[in-house]
């Protein structure tokens, strides 16, 4: 049975979520169609540009992404601190870049409302927009609807483009977050369409290394680009709104993990495990098991047993998926 999105997302438990959407058609989101011989590679750039645009509007940060031939992955961070700091005028300016304003709000923005009841009603609408700017479901809706319309127009057809609703996983702790990010960034290597991390175009790790999403994108673009969600800086260990590790450690971790999973393409496995593994309390074998099996099960949340229990309580569930596996890994 399909579950409501409110039962899958709980910002009280975590601001981090892994989201996936797949195409429903034989014709790909991106890549090459072997039947028609037509290339859809340009749609990867559509995806990245739309994600960047929405990142400027929503108070949602992108931790990692991978744009594949018939699906895409996002690891998102709902930035409650940012949206709380926005004024009502800021909220309107952002929301109206996507949707039109009702007459009441338009009049409020022009200072034309004269009664307290009208002002209150207008601010209630703005308050709803504020909530939506922190809502991952609205972010994904604004992304998928735009791409579906653009692809349908290009394909000269109508109908469903995406395979139902997007799937989401709550990432309840640091281990779950970094495991998922590495899993997402290594998608092209696992699919054998890239031989190394630094060649994995249209992934966040490629962008973090090169400053662009692909080799074809110019670095001197005039477009304003919202950066990917940042990592902790060594000198600022008390930072809160960052990915809880250093970028250099994460890059080393992804590269090392890629070598283990794709040793036939990447050569010998590094003898020295990344220092981040010790910080997470994981040994090499456990980390590899996590990254190899991460995408095989459609779990709504990933984390320790205690975190899963709290998430289940907050989302009205009586059960915890893969409790035994969580007890084995998060001991």
What would your notes on this structure say?
The protein has helices spanning 42-57, 80-85, 88-95, 103-109, 116-132, 136-155, 174-185, 187-190, 204-210, 247-261, 263-266, 275-280, 284-293, 305-314, 323-329, and strands at 16-22, 60-67, 71-78, 167-171, 301-302. It has 331 residues and is an alpha+beta fold. A five-stranded mixed sheet has the order 2-3-1-4-5, with helices on both faces. Helix 3 (88-95) crosses helix 5 (116-132) and helix 7 packs across helix 13. The model is unreliable at 265-270 (pLDDT under 50).
Outline:
It is built from 15 helices and 5 strands. By secondary structure, the protein is α+β, with helices and mostly antiparallel strands.
